[in-house]
């Protein structure tokens, strides 16, 4: 395991084959456009980090703090974000197909055009999030919170999911 505190350190060690960066502090770092498949950044802090266009497919982000991070067009398919803090993050066009967001906090996150199809969102908190034009088809929402979350007519929701009953509002 290698704890790092800069994008340069992370990239150098990742390119040398290291994948476990658990507990790293990368607050505010520019990690945009990197390919970091199967990386372990569990229990790391990436507050206000820029991950625009970064490939984090199959990443382990267990209890990672990504609050207020820029995650536009990020690839997070098959990533494990159990207990992650994504509150107030910007995730326009993000891909989270088949990802795990068990007990993740996404309150106030902007998920415009995000693809969360087939994701597991058990006990995830989407309060006040913007899910306009997002794809949540086939996602599992057991005990998820949507109070005050926005959706649009083009938001794809699972069959038998009633956004109004869940406390969502049309954008």
Would you mind describing this structure in some detail?
The mean pLDDT is 97. The radius of gyration is 15 Å and the shape is elongated. It has a two-stranded parallel ribbon. The chain has one helix at residues 7-15; strands at residues 150-151, 169-170. The chain is low in regular secondary structure and 171 residues long. It is built from one helix and two strands; from the N terminus they run H-E-E. The longest helix is centred in the N-terminal third of the chain and has 9 residues, at 7-15.
Distance between the termini: 44 Å
| Main β sheet profile | 2 strands, parallel
Runs with pLDDT <50, length 5+? none
How many helical stretches? 1
Radius of gyration, in Å, reads 15 Å
Decide which structural class fits the backbone. little secondary structure
Pick out its properties:
171 residues, little secondary structure, two-stranded parallel ribbon, elongated
Task: Please outline the helices and strands.
Elements: H1 7-15, E1 150-151, E2 169-170
Parallel strand pairs: 1-2
